[in-house]
């Protein structure tokens, strides 16, 4: 094996029979289809390995290819299945999850989102009702009625009564403005902090040689900037369906302006949606989202979703200046104790947790659901978020991170 | 070192029990001259791989510990400012250019790990530990170094590698690494060892740990890792615990359940975890250990 050296020449590669090269090329394609990032270089190395005798021992070849082609844990875990299926004709135990499934389009809450978007005044938007919520037929009408009396103050209309595309557009604008001001304030704070930086000795001495080494002009080290990061977890379950639309627009606005933001949707499971949300066109972003989320409407597993988040995403998306914003009504259908534990784990990680609850402003609402009760001790700010005004009121708090 | 078996044996001789996959990775590393990226939870023994590799090659281990804000001057080279200043003072009045040439010469250059690694006569093992802690910029800089193995120092010119080091990178997943870096490396995911391998690790590292005790310890640790803990014990913790038990002259865990429970502090490193594993839990876990 070691005889072939570091950089195998193409003569050696010729020894790989044509059949094998074709099969190898097909295998590389299969891997790429499954999300492996494989360049030409890896392909050449793989051919070299096969020529060097690895091809005769499937177990060894699998192990070698696994190291060569995997780039991250997810690749590492699905590689064996793909290899066996391709080379040994075995059935893959669990098929790798690929984005896009017909089921997603049927999910009730996301369907309602899209309906809200495309035909705003349409009656049958939300199929799942909030406990104690309005009947769907009343929604559009009531919105219009309130619109007539409180037209001057759009900011105070409850999102669930907001049906007019124009109003929704404005909500989006407010969200974008909010995000922008957060950024500006932040920059200002960083500027103010810039005093007292350390000396850069190397540059100082270099720059002062002509003065005989007397440090006349001082060069200072620049400080690494670490901007505020916002991680948003949005409840997309049935009970939140009336609010999800506007919040998705809000998140879209924030991601637009904020370089450092990540978004997740959860219902019975968690979906990372940052990339989909970075789509410039909000309508297209929503379309992509509906493809990504699956199984909505089966209750809200906040605890489990948080567990997934803590386990697989938190290390990557949370740093020391991170604010986690959870938008949910806190109706947990899973284990409330688990929710409490996961909230505690999350609180240890990030700077601050903001929990926005649209139901909070409802008359007679008290945080009595087991889920929200378990979560509250770990929340730094618990605020209502049912109108544009309430979102705007959050701004000073978020800017002061 | 040639075959996987030989590699595994050589590592075992240095106290590292590698599985077949890792041995393959190391043979590929030498065959393809690529760095090896090791990912895995904290405490699974990623750093140990590099140490054992250096021992097996009987070569030097050069370690670069990454941290936030790590820059080239700390990783690659630095000038010896004190000596430079003294030299400038001593040559006061002379031509400024001549002084400059003099103070930016090899004599005043301080090697840092990366520069040291490419200037050795014998290829060392270069361990770039916890690369995920370093910033994106540093990662990008590393990319260049790892593909060309040469460095340019503005005042001195380009320094080419005398030998190509064996490079091992480790990551705990604090930050997502760039695809560019991942693609340049061979990837190996280091998991917690299975019971059998952990028992062999204990036997290899702890004098006086017999096969049956090592197996019991490994089984109990496996049970503890399945409990819901904040900080899952790594291999280093297992070894601490095994050393403690051997030191206390425990031959069989069932003989000393009290001692077992009391010494669990070697494995459980937070107050929460300590209070979660109660006496009852210890007994339940012990019950599963045959």
TrEMBL record, chain A:
InterPro entries: UCP010256, Uncharacterised_CoxE, vWFA_dom_sf
A Pfam family hit: VWA_CoxE
Gene3D superfamilies tied to this protein: von Willebrand factor, type A domain (3.40.50.410)
CDD domains for the chain: vWFA
Sequence ranges of Basic and acidic residues compositional bias: 136-145
Ranges where the record places region Disordered: 98-147
Protein name (Swiss-Prot/TrEMBL): VWA domain-containing protein
UniProtKB/TrEMBL annotation, chain B:
Pfam hit, one: AAA_5
Domain AAA+ ATPase span(s) in chain numbering: 32-196
Top-rank lineage group of the source organism: Bacteria
A molecular function (GO) term: ATP binding
Transmembrane annotation, as ranges: none
SUPFAM superfamilies cross-referenced by the UniProt entry: P-loop containing nucleoside triphosphate hydrolases
Name assigned to this protein: MoxR family ATPase
Organism expressing this protein natively: Bradyrhizobium sediminis
């Amino acid at each position: 094996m070691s005889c072939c050296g570091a950089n195998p020449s193409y003569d050696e590669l010729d020894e790989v029979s044509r059949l094998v090269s074709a099969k190898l090329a097909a295998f590389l394609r299969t891997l790429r289809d499954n999300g492996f990032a494989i360049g030409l270089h890896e392909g050449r190395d793989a051919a070299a390995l096969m020529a060097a005798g690895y091809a005769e021992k499937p177990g060894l070849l699998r192990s070698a290819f696994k190291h060569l082609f995997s780039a991250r844990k997810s690749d590492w875990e699905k590689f064996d299945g793909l290899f066996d299926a391709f080379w040994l004709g075995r059935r893959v135990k669990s098929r790798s999850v690929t984005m896009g499934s017909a089921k997603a389009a049927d999910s009730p809450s996301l369907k309602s989102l899209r309906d809200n978007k495309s035909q705003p005044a349409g009656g049958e938007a939300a199929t799942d009702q909030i406990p104690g919520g309005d009947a769907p037929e009343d929604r559009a009408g009531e919105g219009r009625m309130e619109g007539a009396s409180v037209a001057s103050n759009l900011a105070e209309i409850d999102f669930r009564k907001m049906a007019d595309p124009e109003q929704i557009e404005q909500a989006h604008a407010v969200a974008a403005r909010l995000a922008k001001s957060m950024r500006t304030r932040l920059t200002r704070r960083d500027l103010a902090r810039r005093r007292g930086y350390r000396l850069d000795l190397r540059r100082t001495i270099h720059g002062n040689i002509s003065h005989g080494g007397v440090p006349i002009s001082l060069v200072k080290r620049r400080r690494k900037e670490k901007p505020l990061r916002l991680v948003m977890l949005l409840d997309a379950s049935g009970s939140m369906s009336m609010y999800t639309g506007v919040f998705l627009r809000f998140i879209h606005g924030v991601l637009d302006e904020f370089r450092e933001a990540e978004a997740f949707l959860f219902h019975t499971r968690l979906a990372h949606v940052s990339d989909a949300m970075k789509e410039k066109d909000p309508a297209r972003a929503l379309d992509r989202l509906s493809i990504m989320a699956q199984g909505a409407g089966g209750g809200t597993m906040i605890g489990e979703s948080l567990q997934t988040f803590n386990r697989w995403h938190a290390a990557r998306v949370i740093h020391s200046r991170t604010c986690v914003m959870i938008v949910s009504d806190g109706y947990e259908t899973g284990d409330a104790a688990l929710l409490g534990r996961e909230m505690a784990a999350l609180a240890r990680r990030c700077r601050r947790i903001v929990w926005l609850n649209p139901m909070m402003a409802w008359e007679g609402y008290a945080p009595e659901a087991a889920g929200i009760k378990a979560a509250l001790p770990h929340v730094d700010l618990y605020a209502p978020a049912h109108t544009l005004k309430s979102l705007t009121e959050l701004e000073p708090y978020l800017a002061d991170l | 070192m040639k075959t996987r078996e030989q590699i595994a044996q050589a590592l075992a001789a240095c106290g590292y029990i590698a599985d077949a996959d890792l041995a393959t990775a190391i043979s590929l590393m030498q065959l393809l001259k690529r760095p090896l990226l090791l990912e895995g939870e904290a405490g699974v023994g990623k750093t140990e791989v590099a140490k054992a590799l250096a021992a097996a090659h009987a070569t030097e281990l050069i370690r670069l510990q990454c941290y936030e804000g790590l820059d080239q001057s700390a990783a690659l080279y630095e000038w010896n400012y004190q000596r430079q200043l003294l030299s400038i003072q001593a040559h006061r009045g002379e031509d400024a250019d001549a002084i400059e040439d003099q103070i930016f010469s090899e004599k005043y250059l301080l090697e840092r790990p990366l520069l040291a690694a490419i200037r050795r006569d014998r290829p060392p093992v270069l361990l770039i530990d916890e690369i995920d802690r370093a910033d994106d910029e540093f990662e990008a800089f590393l990319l260049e170094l790892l593909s060309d193995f040469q460095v340019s120092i503005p005042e001195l010119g380009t320094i080419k590698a005398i030998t190509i080091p064996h490079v091992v990178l480790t990551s705990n997943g604090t930050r997502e690494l760039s695809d560019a870096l991942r693609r340049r490396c061979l990837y190996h995911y280091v998991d917690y060892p299975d019971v059998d391998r952990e028992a062999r690790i204990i036997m290899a590292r702890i004098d006086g740990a017999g096969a049956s005790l090592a197996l019991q310890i490994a089984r109990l640790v496996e049970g503890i890792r399945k409990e819901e803990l904040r900080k899952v014990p790594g291999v280093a913790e297992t070894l601490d615990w095994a050393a403690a038990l051997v030191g206390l002259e425990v031959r069989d865990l069932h003989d000393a359940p009290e001692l077992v429970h009391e010494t669990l502090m070697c494995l459980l490193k937070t107050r929460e975890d300590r209070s979660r594993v109660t006496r009852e839990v210890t007994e339940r876990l012990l019950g599963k250990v045959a």
